[in-house]
Design goal:
With 198 residues, this protein is of the alpha/beta class. It is built from six helices and seven strands. The mean pLDDT is 87.
């Protein structure tokens, strides 16, 4: 029943997004048909994750701050779409544990390295969490470039890049300098996708 409800709600939202934001999805073939991977987009709008989730065949899980779950409607949608509550600015390993469990089950997980909307433009340092989790779980990261203002009837572009393998850095997982360089390299790939002409 839950799967049917998920498919119905996803279909309705996809239709809404198609009419309102006219999303063009590029590089969808880079998403594996099976197996775990981390999806890493730039973060431009509150709805960018929903556009990605509703326009891919596979379920993509993500994390959200637990305060949002006080809203009953959001909590219901979150349950359907694989959105998990976590404490933001918490030193607990809750988000890491949830992420590793999902990836161990061969699922897809979406993480925004910017950590906040338009983080790069605000001068916010990218977070290395996605890199750490990818190394620990031994899964690839798929960079994603998002272009668009998310204004009604203006086209939004979602560009999936080729998976990046970080398994060779397993011995460097506690090296802050290496993690910082890898995170910056990942953001550069995301920016290239965002800025690449179609």
């Amino acid at each position: 029943m839950k799967k049917i409800l998920h498919a119905i709600v996803k279909g309705i939202y996809k239709m809404f997004a198609l009419i309102t934001y006219r999303p063009k999805i590029i590089g969808k073939e880079n998403i594996p048909d099976y197996g775990a991977a981390i999806i890493c987009p730039n973060h431009v709008h509150a709805l960018d994750s929903t556009i990605i989730i509703s326009n891919t065949k596979r379920r993509i899980n993500t994390l959200a701050k637990e305060e949002l779950f006080k809203n009953r409607f959001f909590r219901w949608i979150a349950t359907l779409f694989g959105i998990y509550p976590v404490k933001i600015n918490s030193k607990s390993m809750e988000s890491v544990k949830i992420s590793l469990k999902l990836l161990k089950n061969n699922e897809l997980l979406m993480i925004f390295p910017e950590g906040t909307r338009n983080g790069l433009a605000k001068g916010v340092k990218p977070k290395d969490g996605a890199i750490k989790i990818a190394i620990k779980a031994k899964v690839p990261i798929i960079p994603v470039g998002i272009i668009g203002e998310f204004k009604p009837f203006k086209k939004v572009f979602i560009k999936f890049g080729k998976p990046i393998d970080f398994s060779k850095y397993e011995s460097e997982i506690n090296n802050k300098e290496v993690l910082e360089n890898l995170t910056n390299n990942l953001m550069n790939e995301i920016i290239k996708l965002r800025d690449k002409k179609i």
